[in-house]
Design brief:
The structure holds 3 protein chains of 3 kinds.
Chain A lengths: L5 E10 L40 H13 L3 E2 L2 E2 L2 E4 L9 E4 L10 E10 L2 E14 L3 E3 L11 E4 L6 E7 L6 H17 L11 E9 L5 E6 L2 H20 L7 E6 L4 E4 L12 E2 L6 E2 L2 H9 L5 H12 L3 H8 L2 H14 L2 H19 L3 H7 L2 H12 L5 H14 L3 H7 L8 H14 L1 H9 L4 H11 L6 H17 L2
Parallel strand pairs in A: 12-13
Antiparallel strand pairs in A: 1-10, 1-11, 2-6, 3-16, 4-5, 4-15, 6-7, 7-10, 8-9, 11-12, 13-14
Helix pairs in contact in A: 2-3, 5-6, 6-8, 7-8, 7-10, 8-11, 13-15, 13-16, 15-16
Chain B lengths: L11 H10 L3 H20 L2 E4 L2 H16 L10 E5 L26 H8 L3 E6 L33 H8 L5 E6 L5 H7 L2 E4 L19 E6 L2 H11 L30 E5 L9 H16 L3 E5 L7 H16 L19 H12 L2 H14 L5 H24 L2 E5 L15 H6 L5 H6 L3 E9 L2 E8 L5 H15 L14
Chain C lengths: L5 H12 L5 H18 L34 H5 L5 E2 L2 E4 L4
Antiparallel strand pairs in C: 1-2
Classes of the chains: A alpha+beta, B alpha/beta, C mainly alpha.
The complex binds zinc ion (ZN).
Chain lengths: 486, 496, 96
């Protein structure tokens, strides 16, 4: 299946976690970890008679995103009711936005540039909506599909969400992931979303293969899972198409535990959301002055930051892009550099070692930077630059720091990682190695490349602490002595 | 026969003054109102929920104490009847629907907070058409309220309970709500005054929504002064309602002047006095016009042809909004409930809604769903909203030329029970003259125009945006000239 | 003007509204619906293609809210009207 036959569009729902209160009421926005139904009021519980009043900061946040995604901004903010019955929706309609008679989304027609196979690609943004988050459903006696009843917690109900919808411009699961990563970084740089919070970023993906139908996958909660779910769907749909089966137009649910998509119950009738402008919320004018004011205050965005990293720090395109893909990572890098210079060395370490281990160990970057603090990382760089440790040791120390949350100095000294650069000490070990490996010595005398094996043996004996350059030099010297003696 | 306290016939404005000079009178007043309720409630049935006398007396005692300590509450000690569409904290609020038969709100509507803040005491929650859908109060899920002028006739609706509670002296003043005439129609039918304020003047926070963009809470009273008093308390900015106007510190008492405060130009709309109007209504209407002319005010006739489309446009919009506003009633968080275990949400919700809503409500939800549904939105909801625009523009233009528009409040005198319900359109026609003010957001007051054959007939005055003061001035002048105030309906005259 | 049979229409709309019409109600409702829809259709004679719709009559800028935390309800107040509660959660029907 060629990539060109795949069309993917994404709907990203992101909470504006920087807000103190919900979208239409003054309940706190930090609902996480609270006992069920303790973070609600008449408005977000949808009690009869209660009325919504919009949080002005939510509008400003949406405008910031609209500007960052280069959208056309509506001159008026109109809220629209979207009707569907569901137990997590207290009013059985969601206050959202819509593009139709009497309604308009706050922004449309923008784009995001993503990196794809070394090149750049513009992915169009269809629209941005401001809307309210529903409550949360727990399935006490099984899963969504098998539970006999549900338990509802409305603490999340009314949290401000942005729905960012792309055009179906994405051609592979990898591109979809790159899109989410880029979007996430933009939202982080704007200071609006803490994407590490559980449920702060949720994705629905639409995918269609040539000859098939559009399938929507709901409830994906990470960029990684977007890639997985789409890959799963491509395989499932291609198989169906190959065997001549019809791919139904349907909505499927991503089961993040079993890593499969499952079909949701088919509705008897086509959904009919009956959108109409919410009469409780008259249109709010969005003045040019307000847009201008917000534009002036926009912080540095990822693309600008990448450029600056390349220019100011002499980083490669690759290093700069990876660093900026996560705001905390880029901030961490800059803090380290501010502390101890050496941008190239630090850039490499942060991307190739730090980030690699953080991903492998599945810890949050924001937590990891508090373990291997800039101060700690700078100490390592200092030791490297002063030959106290070598690069190989540095690479070994980083996962240990992250794993055991120990001070780098403690690890270096307690575990005796200090570089051996003392010629006398090294010579003693080299003599041992030569004695123990007569065959390798013979090889090395004929073939200079075989010297590496002997260096390796010295490294093994010193647990990597031997200074590799010095060891190499000394072995060659020793070999010369051996062969030069008649 | 018990001799009632002389306090019972007194108006609210006068009572508050009396209570301020002698706070001990509050208790006598409360007891006598409850005596009236004891005697007439079985005949007229205004209240869905009546608070127990001892509770109300305790509230009265508290107000007495504050008055003694210098409190200057504008409603100090007054018993206020509240339509059961307005939420009251810890006091059952049903909307006259089975679906909310046991709903105890955990909060007060803004208007209730204001009334309590001024020393007013909620006496009970009054009957209405279920979810305010109706013009006769026959559509209550619980019982029908009767017109105290003629117990065989409807009191009008949907605020029929509030109108009758006031008309029959079961409360001094009352709150109603008006989506298409629901304050003005029952006010006209029971011989009292009621006003639908400018859209946004009175907070809707805590008003259980029916037609959001159309409705307002408003006062109902036996005379214009009492109406002005209650309106002064409930009007003004509320940060909990996005549609609230930024006006504060309103005092409508200043408009209770016996002469015109300006040279009002009065318009009658040709379309509202030609077809379909009862002769009795027309006679009363003309008599009222003469009263204004006698004051030297100019009356002219205008034509607004689009007005004949106002009624269908109104019903399309009201039902569309209702279908949306009433989606939340599913029995999970409050109200009528069925067991959920082992059943899907659509089964459970369908059962709750089919058993909990009455027929008229179901009809309006279905039709409202229909006019918003794919393929019909443009044809009905959007088109109705365009008619609304044309009507709005016509009235804006008209009010550049005139100061007030007068019409009969209703085309007919109150129907007998069952008469209006036989045909849905007959019921809707009762709102012909009142819906205009809701579609345009303009203030409109209904005052007694005349009593014909022992049945009251209402006069409606519509003014420009925020002209409540001038409407009150005109209403007050009419009241002085006609003597139609503090009326005692025939069916209860022996009891008050 | 309906684009479908009245009975089919009623079934579709009642599914969308989650309102079931009993067989006793059906006759009254169908009869009333027909009349009311005809009444609605009177507006069809107007050509309003050049008219802007008016959805709300408010001329002022709407009330908005600063991002400041206010009071929420106590859990007792929240659950007071709930008929089925389990561990502080509100019990709801199956979703699939
Ligand atoms: Zn809330």
């Amino acid at each position: 299946m060629s990539n060109l036959d795949i069309k993917i569009g994404l709907e990203v729902h992101t909470q504006i976690t920087s807000l103190k209160t919900k979208l239409f009421c003054s309940c706190p926005s930090d609902y996480r970890g609270k006992p069920p139904n303790t973070n609600v009021c008449p408005v977000c519980l949808g009690l009869p008679g209660a009325l919504p009043v919009v949080n002005i900061e939510a509008i400003r946040a949406a405008l910031m995103v609209a500007l960052a995604l280069k959208c056309e901004i509506s001159d008026v903010l109109v809220f629209t009711r979207k009707h569907y019955f569901y137990p997590d929706l207290p009013k059985n309609y969601q206050i959202s936005q819509y593009d139709g008679p009497g309604s308009i989304p706050i922004a449309k027609n923008g784009y995001i540039v993503i990196g794809v196979d070394g090149g750049l690609k513009k992915v169009r943004i269809r629209r941005i909506n401001i809307e309210e988050d529903p409550g949360k459903i727990v399935y006490p006696t099984g899963s969504l599909l098998t539970s006999k009843y549900t338990l509802i917690d409305y603490n999340r109900s009314g949290i401000a969400l942005l729905e960012i919808v792309s055009e179906p411009d994405l051609r592979s699961p990898k591109e979809a992931r790159a899109f989410i990563d880029k979007l996430r970084s933009i939202l982080e740089h704007l200071g609006l979303v803490n994407t590490e919070l559980e449920g702060a970023l949720r994705v629905d993906a639409n995918i269609s293969l040539a000859g098939g139908s559009r399938v929507e996958i709901k409830n994906i909660s990470s960029a990684k899972d977007v890639e997985r779910a789409l890959t799963y769907e491509i395989i499932r749909q291609s198989k169906a198409l190959e065997t001549g089966e019809k791919v139904r137009r349907e909505t499927r649910h991503w089961d993040a535990i079993r890593k499969v998509t499952v079909p949701l119950r088919v509705k008897e009738f086509e959904e009919d959301y009956r959108y109409f402008p919410d009469p409780d919320l008259p249109p709010v004018k969005i003045s040019l002055k307000l847009i201008e004011e917000i534009y002036q205050k926009l912080p540095e965005l990822p693309d600008q930051r990448i450029e600056r990293f390349i220019k100011t720090y002499g980083l490669s395109d690759y290093l700069a892009t990876v660093l900026v893909s996560e705001k905390v990572l880029a901030d961490y890098f800059e803090e380290c550099v501010k502390y101890c210079g050496n941008p190239e060395i630090i850039g490499n370490i942060v991307v190739n070692d730090f980030k690699r281990w953080v991903d492998e160990m599945d810890i949050e970057v924001s937590k990891a930077v508090k373990i291997l603090t800039p101060n700690q990382l700078c100490q390592l760089v200092y030791m490297l630059n002063n030959n106290i440790i070598n690069i190989k040791i540095l690479k070994e120390i980083i996962p240990k720091v992250l794993k055991y949350n120990k001070d780098v100095n403690t690890i270096v000294y307690e575990e005796n990682y200090i570089d051996i650069s003392n010629e006398e000490v090294l010579m003693r070990i080299i003599d041992e190695v030569i004695k123990e490996n007569p065959k390798a010595v013979k090889d090395a005398l004929i073939n200079p490349k075989a010297v590496n094996y002997l260096v390796g043996q010295v490294m093994k004996k010193t647990r990597g602490r031997a200074n590799p350059e010095l060891t190499n030099k000394l072995i060659i010297k020793k070999l010369k002595e051996l062969s030069g003696t008649p | 026969m018990i001799i009632l306290s002389k306090l019972i016939r007194k108006g609210a404005t006068e009572l508050v003054e009396l209570f301020k000079s002698d706070p001990r009178l509050i208790e006598e007043y409360i007891v006598s109102v409850y005596e009236v309720i004891d005697r007439v409630e079985d005949l007229v049935r205004s209240y869905i929920t009546l608070r127990p006398l001892n509770e109300v007396l305790a509230d009265g005692a508290k107000v007495r104490e504050t008055l003694t300590n210098g409190f200057k509450g504008r409603l100090a000690g007054l018993l206020v009847a509240v339509k059961d569409v307005i939420v009251t904290k810890n006091l059952r609020t049903t909307c006259a629907s089975k679906i909310l038969y046991d709903f105890i709100p955990p909060y007060n509507a803004t208007v209730i907070e204001r009334i309590i803040g001024e020393g007013g005491i909620v006496v009970g929650k009054t009957n209405m058409d279920e979810f305010a859908m109706g013009s006769t109060t026959e559509n209550s899920a619980f019982f029908k309220t009767r017109n105290p002028w003629d117990l065989d006739r409807v009191p009008g609706g949907s605020s029929g309970g509030s109108a009758v509670a006031v008309a029959a002296y079961e409360a001094s003043i009352a709150l109603g709500s008006d989506t298409g005439g629901s304050i003005r129609v029952p006010a006209a039918y029971t011989g009292i005054v009621g006003i639908k304020p400018t859209y946004g003047l009175v907070s809707r926070y805590g008003l259980i929504s029916y037609g959001t963009s159309l409705e307002q809470i408003g006062p109902m009273a036996r005379n214009v002064s009492d109406l002005a008093l209650l309106l002064s308390v409930i009007a003004g900015y509320d940060p909990h309602d996005s549609t609230s106007l930024k006006v504060r510190d309103l005092n409508y008492m200043e408009f209770l002047k016996p002469t015109p405060m300006k040279k009002y130009r009065i318009a009658i709309i040709r379309e509202c006095v030609s077809e379909g109007v009862d002769n009795t209504v027309l006679t009363a209407f003309n008599r009222s016009l003469r009263r204004f002319e006698e004051e030297g005010l100019e009356v002219l006739e205008v034509s607004i042809p689009i007005i004949k489309y106002a009624l269908p446009a109104y019903y399309i919009i009201a039902m569309a909004e209702a279908s949306s506003n009433l989606a939340r009633y599913d029995g999970i968080r409050y109200g009528y409930h069925v067991s959920v275990e082992g059943r899907t949400w659509d089964e459970v919700y369908t059962e709750v809604r089919s058993e909990g809503f009455g027929l008229e409500v179901k009809k309006r939800i279905l039709l409202g769903t229909f006019v918003l549904s794919a393929g019909y939105y443009d044809q009905y909801y959007l088109k109705a909203s365009k008619i609304r625009k044309l009507l709005y523009d016509e009235f804006m233009k008209l009010f550049k030329e005139v100061d007030v528009v007068v019409t009969p409040t209703t085309p007919t005198t109150p129907p007998r029970f069952g008469e209006a319900l036989t045909d849905p359109l007959k019921l809707y026609l009762l709102d012909t003259y009142t819906v205009v003010a809701n579609l345009t957001g303009l203030p409109a007051i209904s005052i007694p125009s005349d009593i014909v054959n022992d049945v009251p007939v209402g006069l409606q005055l519509i003014g420009p945006r925020l002209s409540e003061g001038y409407l009150i001035n005109l209403a007050y002048i009419h009241e002085l000239k006609s003597g139609l105030k503090d009326l005692v309906p025939t069916a209860v005259s022996g009891y008050v | 003007m309906l684009k479908e049979d009245l009975k089919v229409w009623l079934e579709r709309i009642s599914k969308l509204s989650l309102i079931r019409i009993s067989s006793e109600e059906e006759e009254i409702i169908l009869n009333d619906m027909k009349k009311i829809i005809e009444f609605f259709n009177t507006i069809n004679s107007l050509d309003l293609s050049n008219v802007e719709p008016l959805f709300m009559v408010l001329k002022d800028e709407p009330v908005v809210r600063d991002d400041e935390v206010g009071e929420s309800l106590s859990v007792d107040e929240v659950l007071k009207n709930v008929k089925e509660v389990e561990g502080g959660f509100i019990k709801g029907p199956k979703t699939a």
